[in-house]
Amino acid sequence: MSEVVAALEGVTKDYGPTRALDGVDLAVHRGEVLGLLGPNGSGKTTAVSLLAGLRRPDGGRVRLAGGDPRDRRTRTRLGVTAQQTGMVDVLKVRELAKWAATHYPAARDVDELLAEFGLDDLADKQFGGLSGGQQRRLTVALAFVGDPEVALLDEPTTGLDVGARRSLWDAIRRYGSGRRAVVLTSHYLEEVEALADRVVVLGRGRVLAEGTVDEIRRLVGLTKVRVRVAEDVEFATLGPVAQVERRDESVEVLTPDADQLVRGLVRHEIGFSHLEVAPASLEDAFLALTDDHHGAEGPAADRAAMESVLEVGAPAATDRPDTTTQSPDAQPRR
User: Fold this and answer.
1) Do the domains 4-216 and 221-294 sit in the same CATH topology, yes or no?
2) Class assignment of domain 4-216?
């Protein structure tokens, strides 16, 4: 296994009487794209904010590039997607990129970076004159301007059309395939499926599963059966069923035993056609793993912190007292 460039080691994080992270171990390796998944209240946002140096753990240790992410010099080795609303509308794209580059000791060539993200034709255009998708591409590009060892990409392709999303995927792949690492969070699970070398699933402040996408799929032991039936069918009477979803003329069934389900259709002489059997998707596996691990939501303190424009050279945010700080990841302590 390659070198660990960022890690949570036995980390706990409390917000007053609630616990957001409960003894979490998480390692990010050089040269990988790590997909970090979890439902609301899972601890995902708190984990990312700790890696970014925006919070300190109450227990355990957080490491980034061999140092503490709350240290000013260590944070120059980190890139984070910025909030679009924090940008100055009258500044041009190249000006914003050059300004961001001043926060890093070994920044990349700005024009080269803009070309890599398909923004070179927009270099002399004001930020306020860009479309929403173009603005989003720029904020993601700026996460890489300092040539950081670790890039934290929080929902990087939100608001992009299919073509722009796939173009951005290519840029992320190129970055994560070398000596650097990318931590990716996304509600587009097909995006994580396409990009991530490894996936960590959080629920109620704990690691529920980790491994490659294929390993996560196999872990839940489910198969997807898609079929058209000539009548209403109670699939649970045919075999073990985890989920049934009707889609137009077809029915999609998640089952641990596809053979038994199909035999049940034949045995009960139920007319069917267009039968397809396929492995469960990452989304199917994610929903199965997290079905009982959704948490209560609170005021979005950590989300607001992550969405601020992260000035890499500036000191990290100071934690508020636990009696007043809340998080969407916080869970009642048990």
Assistant:
1) no
2) alpha beta
CA distance 284 to 222: 8
The Cα-based distances of 124 to 97, 100, 131, 150 in angstroms read 11, 16, 14, 29
pLDDT at 208: 95
Strands (E) in 170-329, as ranges, are 181-185, 198-203, 206-211, 223-229, 243-247, 250-255, 272-279
List the one residue out of 224, 237, 223 whose CA is nearest residue 270.
Answer: 237
Q: What is d(CA 126, CA 122) in angstroms, rounded to the nearest whole number? A: 8
Task: Give domain limits for the chain.
Answer: 4-216, 221-294
pLDDT given at position 232: 85
What pTM did the predictor assign?
0.80
Q: Is 205 left (phi over 0), alpha (psi -120 to 50) or beta?
A: left
Task: Enter the tokens of residue 28.
Answer: 């990010």
User: Which parts of the chain sit beneath pLDDT 70?
Assistant: 1, 83-86, 292-334
d(CA 276, CA 102): 54
Beta-carbon contacts of 327 under 8 Å, excluding residues fewer than 6 positions away, are: 15, 18, 20, 45, 46, 298, 299, 300, 301, 302
Are 138 and 127 in contact by the 8 Å Cβ rule? The answer is yes
Classified as helix, coil or strand, 183 is strand
Domain 221-294, CATH: 3.30.70
DSSP 42: S
Distances in whole angstroms, Cα of residue 203 to Cα of each of 114, 121, 188 = 37, 43, 18
Strands 150-154 and 59-64, sheet pairing = unpaired
